[in-house]
Specification:
This protein is an all-alpha fold. It contains five helices and two strands, in the order H-E-H-H-H-E-H. The longest helix is centred in the C-terminal third of the chain and has 73 residues, at 130-202.
Length: 207
């Protein structure tokens, strides 16, 4: 569930990047921009904030999911490093995604929107301030770095999950083999016991 939610949120972040890139390219190649351009930026900002919420919300975000799993492990008295360490590492990695790049992307988007709003304050169209394009360029740069780290994190998690599945499969095969050996040994003992009892019933061979 956590891996799936992390992957779904990464997809949302890619949508944010696509919106930001489209706005950057439009404004970079235009001499003016309109309220429609501002609305596109606002949409990208809203989506970026939703990504931030998933990464940080202690009630409904990924941190809440991870803490819930840690609590389940503790309740079941299975608080072993092999179980808790990967979850704690993941919690730190999710926090690092936000701190390393997401916050900077949010700030750059917010500055671009503030500058756009100021330019459009008294008109339907306005000249494109160079600072708007510069902030959008910075936001895209931060989002690219964010997505690279995100991809690496998911690859690591999926690799670990695959390794755990292989290990579980091997353990299952070994358990089944042990069960077969035990059943075979039990059957052999029963045959031996029946043969021994039959010989005892016949008594000594007549001379």
């Amino acid at each position: 569930w956590i891996v799936r939610r992390l992957a779904e949120t990464r997809t949302r972040q890619r949508v944010v990047r696509a919106e930001t890139v489209a706005a950057r390219d439009t404004l970079r190649n235009a001499s003016t921009f309109t309220r429609t351009d501002l609305e596109r930026l606002a949409t990208a900002q809203w989506q970026q904030n939703e990504v931030d919420r998933v990464l940080t919300d202690s009630a409904d975000g990924l941190p809440a999911d991870i803490h819930h799993l840690l609590e389940e492990v503790a309740v079941n008295r299975a608080d072993l490093p092999a179980l808790t360490a990967p979850l704690k590492t993941l919690l730190a990695a999710v926090g690092a995604l936000r701190q390393n790049h997401l916050v900077a992307s949010q700030l750059a988007l917010a500055r671009a929107i503030k500058l756009s709003q100021a330019a459009l304050l008294d008109a339907a169209t306005a000249d494109v301030p160079a600072a708007v394009v510069a902030n959008l360029r910075e936001s895209v740069k931060r989002q690219d770095a964010l997505l690279r780290e995100w991809d690496q994190l998911l690859e690591q998690m999926q690799s670990r999950a695959s390794s755990r599945r292989r290990l579980q499969a091997i353990r299952q095969i070994r358990a089944e083999q042990q069960a077969v050996r035990a059943a075979t040994a039990s059957a052999a003992r029963q045959v031996y016991q029946r043969n021994t009892a039959a010989e005892a019933d016949r008594g000594p061979a007549a001379e």
